[in-house]
Amino acid sequence: VKIKHYFDIHHSLISRVVFWTVLASLLVFLISFGGAMFFAQKNISRQADEKVNICLDIAVSSLDDELKGVEDAARKTVEYLKFNFPENNDEVYTFLESLTLSNTFVQGVVMAFETSPSHPDGYAPYIMEQEGRYILRDLSKTQPDYSQNPWYLNAVKQNKGNWNKALVEINGTKIISYSCPFYSSEEEFMGVLALDVNVEDIREQIGLLKPYANSSFYVLDEDRNILIQSENPEMEGKHLEDKNEDMRLYYAPTKYGKLTVAVELPVADILAPVKNIRRSLIVLSLLGILALALTIVIVLRRQMGSVVKFTQAARSIAAGNFNTPIPETKDPNELQRLGKALDEMQTSLRTYMADLAATQQEKGKIENEIHIASGIQKAMLPKIYPPYPDRDDLDIYGILLPAREVGGDLYDFFIRDEKLYFCIGDVSGKGVPASLVMAVTRSLIRIVSMRESSPGSIMRTINDSMTDMNETAMFVTLFIGVLDLASGKLAYCNGGHNAPLLSARGEVRMLDVVANLPVGILDGKTFVEQQTQLDPGDMVFLYTDGLTESEDSAHRLFGDDAMIDTVKASEKNNARRTIDEMVAKVRLHADGAEQSDDLTMLAVRYMGPQHEQRFVKELKLRNRLSETASLEPFVEELGTEFKMEKSEVMRLNLALEEVVVNIISYAYPPDTDGEISLVASGTDDCLKLVISDAGRPFDPTKQADPDITLDADDRQIGGLGIYLVRNIVDTMFYERVDRHNVLTLRKYKNNAIS
Amino acid sequence: MTINIKDEGTQVVAELEGRLDTIASTEKAASFQELAQMAGKTIVFDCGKLEYISSSGLRLLLVVRKAAQAAGGQVIIRKLSDDIRSVFTMTGFIDIFTVE
After folding, report:
1. What is the mean pLDDT of chain A?
2. For residue A344, how many other CB atoms are within 10 A of its CB?
3. Of A2, A123, A492, A650, which is the most exposed, with the fewest CB atoms less than 10 Å away?
């Protein structure tokens, strides 16, 4: 992975740098190359023009020298003839021969006489050089109409020397001629003297005109007909067209002979040097760019080595190795700075982590302390249920489910002088501060209740102490009740707390309370105390707003009605079952929503005054159905002792039988031997039955009631037993004590509950 | 506990006498099965001498009642004492049977 990562970094960064650098270099190169080429071409081209033109000038002027010589010779000859006209033919020939010899460029001379009486058919002696020899002949013999030829006519017509167009001799020689009229000494027109110049001599004269290896020259007549093509004689005789883009033509007209010399040159030849330069330039530049790219790759790769090392170090640090050494680098400033930054980061991370660890430790300490505080707070709450197992006059159960580890709710109860002191409270605020106030409040209640027995006085004393020391403006809503267990008289005082519920004889209502102020607000305040009478079976249900204001995820409150309904439905349940039902209902309502406030409940059911125990009877059974037969005499006995009516005896018999059959059927596995113990004890008002067995845990009170409204068809066969028990006795509660199932049934005289 | 079954042609009268508790229910289950098989006829339980009934006893009655319902017959309960009646009331059985 590391290697791959290394290559990734390289690949991306180096290739990008190389790419852009090469691109930029190429661009620069292209622009300068283009410019250089443009100017070089222009320059070379101009130089070529100059060179060719110079060569042409030289060629043309050397040609002109010769042609001027021809012209001069002709003119001098005509002048000469005026004074020294040859006497006879021989002299004419000699004269012509000497004239031919006098000028190397003159290949032949013709002296064409105008027809005259002495030469009626014309006379045109013509001498010409042919292969080193001079041949003499009379042109009038071969060309009787010579006087009609252009060379002749032109000279006559213009009456001066004149260059004529090229023509081809009989022997195939191509010539151009200069013809001029000659006169007698009497200025009488005698004829035309024509000097021939062999085109081949011209070719020879300027044959060195070759400024470029591939250049050629032309000699053109005045109509651009090609007389000479140095490289390509087939073109001779044709007309020269301006045609080829690849070729460049330079022209230079001669002063003599009506000729034009042209040099034709392939453009490629002119630009050949540029081409060579271009090739080497491209090769060199590409090599340069390649070298540049290589340098970048090498340099970057070396630098990248540091970066990769830094990356690895950073990762290692990120993984928690704060002592990872930061790699040294001899690379340029930037990387050194990066290294330094990494180093600084590491240092501050180390410091930060140390701080964090300290903070965490501190936090852990605080958490631990809060945990301990939570334990202390829990220890302040009654936690052993049933709290007074020997008392038959009281069924009491309370819970506090804190929203956080510590909270501000409290409840408490204790018995002093046959009076039950009980309270529930809710400290404003939450968390540790609230929990401290809760502890103070609970302690104050305990202390004050030791010498005060009126809830109003207790409340006032607590209020005064708390207002005194309360500088944090925290207060407590508090309900204190004092129940006289002998008479059922309940004195209570409400300090701004929610009105408790009173469940009496099938009715559930809010206890009538004067609101009063919460405790801890106003010093010296008196609290109104109220009184009510509880009958046996009546229940007071106390709670904090954590119950009624318990929210579901949509922030809907649990509410008073749901609470009242639940208490009402629990009319026949004991205090614990009532609260368990309530918790179940609240959980159902909350549907997973987080509990936001402490949830505290206390249920106090008054069972009537406790009377002296009048009898205790015991029955032990084996776990066999046949044993149930002994239940009937046992119950008969109890009926007599407790002065029960016959129908009541029958029902009690039924209840006990159902309980025992249940234990035999469910608590003990089949074919195991077990014992079932029944202990009945009675006071004047209450018959208590404790049925215990050593079978597996089995709580009959958890069994769901059958639906007794169904048709016969839909009714389940079974499940009726416990339902009957629940209907017959007044209270029923189950405990698992010392590996025993202990079920306690109470039946009050005059059927106090049902 | 005794159960005295008399087939009177159109109806069968079962006289229950004594305590129909759990033990008795186990012992007399066969008799109730017999009754359940005659469920096509009207079955009359004479409870005049019935002193006691437990949930097992109620269960036996329910078995017969179910069989009768399946066979299209009916079950009549007669001469319920107040005590037994209270048990019938508690369990809702009073609504399942025809009580005379």
Report:
1. 86
2. 11
3. A2
